[in-house]
Amino acid sequence: MEFLNDMALFVEVVKARSFRGAADIIGMPNSTLSRRISALEKTIGLRLLHRTTRRITLTEAGQIYFERCKRIVDEAKLAHEQLGEMLEQPSGVLRASLPVDFAVTYMAPLIAEFARLYPGIVFDFDLTSRRADLVSEPFDVAIRIGEPENSQLIARPLGVLPVYLYASPRYLDRSGEPAEPDDLAHHECLGIKKSNTWTLHNEARTTEVSIGSRFKLNSVGMICRLAALDMGIIMMWEKIVADDLASGRLCRVLPQWHGTPVSVYAVTETRLLPAKTQHFIKFLQKHLSKV
């Protein structure tokens, strides 16, 4: 049954995208790992990997084999860990892709609390605005804001973020305070680069307003910072601007109106999750559902 072990080694090589990287993770000499994968290919009778001096890529057969093997290896790991969890708390490296501004501004205290609860878990976080590829990259989970784009992934809802309008008191003193959504056409409205309209709701109706600004931005943090520096009106998740609200740097605008609430999801490549990932997702669900 040695081929089962070689199957697991093959999965690690593909995930690491190199023999050397996988060898470091596994703790096996690079030459031994390469020899084991070559023996696996010989046993199967098909080439699984294209090898160059810099990288490896999957052959067509290798792609099919990897997809099947990964599920088998994940299930085996899960079975092993679920038994181990009966004796001890979850442990291991939790690799997560997190949205930069939301993670820094809101998630950091939650992560600190989670880390205190589970001292056996080591954290490897990638804070980025890009959408990490959970199939080809070695992430256990990605936290994403907004509806998931890839229907092949498993998305678990964590919570819903209220969205309101904010500006600094000095900006409102200088430019006047809008009384109706249509008044926003005469204001600097700082939004995400690709958005030219805002949808606003109150109890009675929904309206869509065109927005304009001298700034084109793709950073939530920068948008909030400029608003606190008196540069315009923003539509933002309440938790992101909590500190600016508490300090008086920002205040609500058009308080009877709100933006479309934004959902937060934990996205994984598989339903077969190790204990560390399950606990992390459940912890976030518990706290984000209170938002």
Short summary of the structure?
Helix 1 packs across helix 3 (30-44) and helix 1 (2-16) crosses helix 4 (60-85). The chain has helices at residues 2-16, 19-26, 30-44, 60-85, 100-117, 169-175, 220-228, 242-247, 275-288; strands at residues 49-51, 56-58, 92-98, 121-127, 141-145, 154-161, 163-167, 189-190, 197-201, 206-210, 233-237, 251-253, 258-259, 262-268.
How is this structure best described in words?
With 291 residues, the protein is of the alpha+beta class. It has helices at 2-16, 19-26, 30-44, 60-85, 100-117, 169-175, 220-228, 242-247, 275-288, and strands at 49-51, 56-58, 92-98, 121-127, 141-145, 154-161, 163-167, 189-190, 197-201, 206-210, 233-237, 251-253, 258-259, 262-268. The strands form four sheets. It has a five-stranded mixed β-sheet with strand order 4-3-5-14-6, covered by helices on one side. The protein has a four-stranded mixed β-sheet with strand order 8-11-7-12. A hairpin with a 4-residue loop joins strand 1 (49-51) and strand 2 (56-58).
List keywords for this structure.
4-stranded mixed beta sheet, 5-stranded mixed beta sheet, elongated, alpha+beta, 291 residues
Number of strands: 14
Quaternary structure state of the chains depicted:
single chain
The rough form would be described as elongated
Largest sheet: 5 strands, mixed
Low-confidence stretches: none
Mean pLDDT: 88
Number of helices: 9
- In what order do the strands lie side by side in the largest sheet? 4-3-5-14-6
Order of helices and strands: HHHEEHEHEEEEHEEEHEHEEEH
